[in-house]
Each structure stands twice: as structure tokens, then as C-alpha cells.
Design goal:
Number of strands: 11
Radius of gyration: 36 Å
InterPro entries: Ig-like_dom, Ig-like_dom_sf, Ig-like_fold, Ig_V-set, Na_channel_b1/b3
Order of helices and strands: HEEEEEEEEEEEHH
Structural class: alpha+beta
Membrane topology: Single-pass type I membrane protein
CATH class of the largest domain: Mainly Beta
Largest sheet: 6 strands, mixed
CATH superfamily of the largest domain: Immunoglobulins
Number of domains: 2
CATH architecture of the largest domain: Sandwich
Helix content: 25-40%
CATH topology of the largest domain: Immunoglobulin-like
Strand content: 25-35%
Protein name: Sodium channel regulatory subunit beta-3
Pfam family, one: V-set
Family: Belongs to the sodium channel auxiliary subunit SCN3B (TC 8.A.17) family.
Length: 215
């Protein structure tokens, strides 16, 4: 129930740019030794306008002052541009010229991957009069940890789930007790009614002349 509530709230809070595309922020915590999806979404304001876009990813460690170009996507080519990410970056975004999802998947995350990632969309909108160039930049502050930290939402959802289970079990016990007592009362009432009917039948079957003859 709590998960469903979360999904409903999520769908209401996400700002829809147009049908089929929602700009959702990337996760910001990765676990060392595991994979991680760097999310980056840039929706077009008008879906009916055809466009073409390329995506670039840059990376800056906390101790550095400048960004390093690590990845470039120009459909259908995806190129890893830095040796630190060689064979570790995979394109997980849109698979056509009109790129709106620029996500990349990082394999085998290390603590050296902590830092700031900048995603840059360079989009050309083919408008009726003349093409228009648009640049969109988004940043992700990534922290790499040894073990996953449970989010507060997940903890609260689990607590609510267990509380609901306990409440439902107590309610079920109360219902069973109520039904048992109701069935028992009905059984007692039927037995009492049968006893009265039997007693009435016995009195009716007794011959009133027996008393007269005895006198």
C-alpha cells in the first residue's frame, strides 16, 4: 500500500514537459564495486518539432577545478574519451537522433568516481523558419559509499507495512472472535428453542384424562 501511495505521489509531483517524457533527477549515491546509472533527461518543449541532439558527459573530482571530457554520444556512435572510464561506460539513453534521455551506465564503480558529473545536450530544433540551437546542462553530485544507505522513504514504507500487517492480524483475530461468539450464541439459542419445543410437545402429548381417572 505504501509503495502504491509513493508511486501515485511521484506521478503527481513529476513535472511533465510533454507526453512520454519527464525530467527526473538522477540518483546521487553509488555503491563501490557495483554499477550505477547516471541519469540525465532533457525534454523538448514541443514534441511535434523534429530535432537532433548530441550528448556530452564531463567529470570533475572534488580536488580538481576543471572538468574532464569523458563521454560523447552522436547517434549512433558512443565514444568513451577518458582512460579512467575505458570499458566502463555504456550508453543507456535514446537510440535515435532526437535524444532526450542522455543516461550512461557506469560499471564497477570505484571511490575515485566520486565527484561532479556534467551532462550537456546540444540540440538543434528544426523550426519552420530556421533551425534553432539550444544547449542544456545538468549536473550530478555523485557520492560513492562502501554499502548502500537505506533512504528514509524506504524505512518509513517498511515500518508502515509492518504496522499494517500487525493491525490487519489483530483485526482478523477480533473478527474471528466476534464470529465465533455470534455462532455460539446462535447455537445456544437454537438449542434453547429446541428444548422449549420438546417440553411443549411433551406437555401436549400428555393425556389430561390420566389425572381424572386417578381421582
Amino acid at each position: 500500500m505504501s509503495c502504491w501511495t509513493f508511486l501515485v505521489a511521484f506521478s503527481l509531483l513529476v513535472p511533465w514537459c510533454h507526453a512520454g517524457c519527464a525530467e527526473v533527477d538522477s540518483m546521487t549515491e553509488a555503491v563501490a564495486g557495483e554499477g550505477f546509472l547516471l541519469g540525465c533527461i532533457s525534454c523538448k518543449k514541443r514534441e511535434e518539432v523534429s530535432a537532433r541532439a548530441t550528448v556530452d558527459w564531463h567529470f570533475k573530482r572534488p580536488e580538481n577545478h576543471e572538468f574532464t571530457h569523458i563521454f560523447h554520444y552522436d547517434h549512433p556512435n558512443a565514444n568513451v574519451l577518458h582512460e579512467d572510464f575505458s570499458d566502463r561506460l555504456q550508453w543507456q539513453g535514446t537510440l535515435n537522433d532526437d535524444v532526450q534521455i542522455g543516461a550512461v551506465y557506469v560499471q564497477n564503480v570505484t571511490f575515485n568516481d566520486s565527484g561532479t558529473y556534467r551532462c550537456t545536450f546540444r540540440r538543434t530544433l528544426f523550426l519552420p523558419r530556421q533551425p534553432e540551437n539550444v544547449v542544456v546542462e545538468k549536473e550530478v553530485e555523485l557520492t560513492v559509499v562502501a554499502a548502500a544507505n537505506r533512504e528514509l522513504t524506504a524505512v518509513i514504507s517498511e515500518i508502515v507495512m509492518y504496522v499494517l500487517i500487525v493491525v490487519l492480524q489483530l483485526w482478523l483475530i477480533l473478527v474471528m472472535v466476534y464470529c465465533y461468539r455470534k455462532i455460539w450464541d446462535e447455537h445456544e439459542a437454537r438449542e434453547a428453542k429446541k428444548a422449549l419445543e420438546a417440553e411443549g410437545s411433551l406437555l401436549e402429548s400428555k393425556d389430561p384424562c390420566d389425572g381424572v381417572q386417578a381421582e
